[in-house]
């Protein structure tokens, strides 16, 4: 009975966006299949893009499986992870401007990495991931505690508050870095790049698949949580437990990506907003689209980063940051225009 109520409210809660399909629960449509082929094509291009000649060198085949294949897999998993985090945050905060970059979660992950390096010289990847995940979770929970005390939750107040909190954490990280002479650690984290990815350095990203499955299983309840605490409580859903679960999923994704790849900005802002404009706010049917679009976006940006000044490589965070900033401004202008029309 509860599941039936959740499904009914979830369907009713979707706003009538133009271009939204008549059946929001239908996932495998012709456009989705075409999108799959497009992402697969980008993956193939990524496999064969790079300075090293895998065809002409004797060890080209080995280098292909040591670097190119892991890099492409890491791109896909990272794109899906960061896009999902933005989608979850949009729901639980009821704000389209919120994602790990705009509420300080990535800064907390960087502080967690720094703390691990201070406590354990030469830490393993598991230790770095653990520190980033724990600090990401704590930082996101602190943000939500602040958010509960703010009565005015406009589309601008919430991200501005998050950016201010992130700036404080970033300043603290910078101070600790300079004091202990560990600038190289924090600089490597800020330069989000897939260049160092190879066999043995990316496998923990597969945990993101487990996070995706959990998110899909709890999609209905998280959609209800996105309607507010009162509605969720009325329907018999434990709102606080769902918020903790959502923050845990966000922290795992952000922490793993921060430890393995580095800072990946704005992907959680770009992708969910575009999908939401087209398909509405149904988490269950939007999740495959968000993951797929995130994969394609970050793979395309990484290909551009590899060829724009070849034989050198631009950090993919630079490309994503530029695109994300432009999209962020366009979304703000769109919201301002919609308010004027009202």
TrEMBL record:
Keywords: Cell membrane, Membrane, Transmembrane, Transmembrane helix, Transport. The keyword Transmembrane applies. The chain crosses the membrane at residues 27-52, 73-91, 103-120, 132-150, 156-181, 202-222, 242-275, 287-309, 315-333. CDD domains: TM_ABC_iron-siderophores_like. Gene3D superfamilies: ABC transporter involved in vitamin B12 uptake, BtuC. It is found in: Cell membrane. It is a multi-pass membrane protein. It holds the Pfam family FecCD. This is Iron compound ABC transporter, permease. It comes from Thermobacillus xylanilyticus. The gene is txxe3920-fhuG.
């Amino acid at each position: 009975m509860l599941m039936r109520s959740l499904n009914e409210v979830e369907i009713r809660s979707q706003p009538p966006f133009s271009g939204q399909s008549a059946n929001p629960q239908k996932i495998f449509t012709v456009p989705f299949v075409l999108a799959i082929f497009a992402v697969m094509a980008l993956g193939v291009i990524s496999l064969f893009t790079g300075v090293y000649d895998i065809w002409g060198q004797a060890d080209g085949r080995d280098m292909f499986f040591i670097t190119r294949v892991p890099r492409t897999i890491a791109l896909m998993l990272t794109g899906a992870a960061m896009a999902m985090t933005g989608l979850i945050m949009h729901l639980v905060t009821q704000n389209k401007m919120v994602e790990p970059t705009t509420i300080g979660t990535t800064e907390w992950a960087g502080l967690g990495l720094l703390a691990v390096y201070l406590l354990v010289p030469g830490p393993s990847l598991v230790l770095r991931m653990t520190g980033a995940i724990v600090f990401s979770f704590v930082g996101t929970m602190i943000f939500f505690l602040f958010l509960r005390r703010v009565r005015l939750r406009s589309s601008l107040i919430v991200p501005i508050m998050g950016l201010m909190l992130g700036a404080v954490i970033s300043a603290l990280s910078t101070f600790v870095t300079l004091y202990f002479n560990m600038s190289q650690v924090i600089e490597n984290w800020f330069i989000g790049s897939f260049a160092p990815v190879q066999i043995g350095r990316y496998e923990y990203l597969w945990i993101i698949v487990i996070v995706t499955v959990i998110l899909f299983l709890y999609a209905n309840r998280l959609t209800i949580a996105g309607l507010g605490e009162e509605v969720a409580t009325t329907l018999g859903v434990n709102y606080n437990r769902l918020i903790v679960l959502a923050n845990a999923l966000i922290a795992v994704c952000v922490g793993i990506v921060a430890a393995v790849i580095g800072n990946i900005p704005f992907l959680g802002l770009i992708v969910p907003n575009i999908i939401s404009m087209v398909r509405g706010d149904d988490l269950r049917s939007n999740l495959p689209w968000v993951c797929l679009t995130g994969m394609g976006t970050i793979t395309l940006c990484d290909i551009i980063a590899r060829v724009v000044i070849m034989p050198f490589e631009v950090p993919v965070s630079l490309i994503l940051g530029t695109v994300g900033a432009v999209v962020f401004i366009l979304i703000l202008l769109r919201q301002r225009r919609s308010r004027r029309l009202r």
